[in-house]
Amino acid sequence: MSGGTDWTVLTDAHEALRTAVRGVGDDGWARPTPCTQWNVTQVLQHALGDQIGFAGFITGGPMPDEDPFAPSGVLGGDPQELAEAAMRASAAAWATVPPGTADVPSPVPPGKLQAELGVGICALDAAVHAWDIAMATGRPSPLTPALARALLPTAHALVDPLRAFGAYAPALQPHEGDDEAASLLRHLGRDPHWTP
Prior knowledge:
Elements: H1 8-22, H2 40-59, H3 79-95, E1 104-105, E2 112-113, H4 115-136, H5 145-163, H6 180-187
Antiparallel strand pairs: 1-2
Helix pairs in contact: 1-3, 1-4, 2-3, 2-4, 4-5, 5-6
């Protein structure tokens, strides 16, 4: 990004989410997801609300129109356009944050995070929900081993404390032969082999 910080992990996570949203057919929005209480539409609303929330905390700009943890299931526009707008806002906000910055405002407890952890948890949210959407709609996983490898340090640093807030399910036991993506998903309480 010209004139700002280029956070590769966030760029890659946004591309995963973009790919997943593009892959949803007209009949895919009501399908069940690994987030058992939400369908594909609700997972997308949650994911986009989180991206907007991070942007709003950093810039003081707009916050999500609805609670990302109680998504209505009704999209207020074209899914791809809504996704692009949320990801643009997030990327632009993070571009203003230099590496190594301490105490970046965050919607994630405790409310301020060191830059690399903050952008990492923002990227983790986009990437894992991209995986949720892709799995729910029978698409290939957009969560590559390389992206998972980049996200694992943040997941190990922040996910366990966030479980107390209901943000993640309990971790699943690792399996021999898991790659980085499977290890990350199990740490987040997801079965890498989940199907609808």
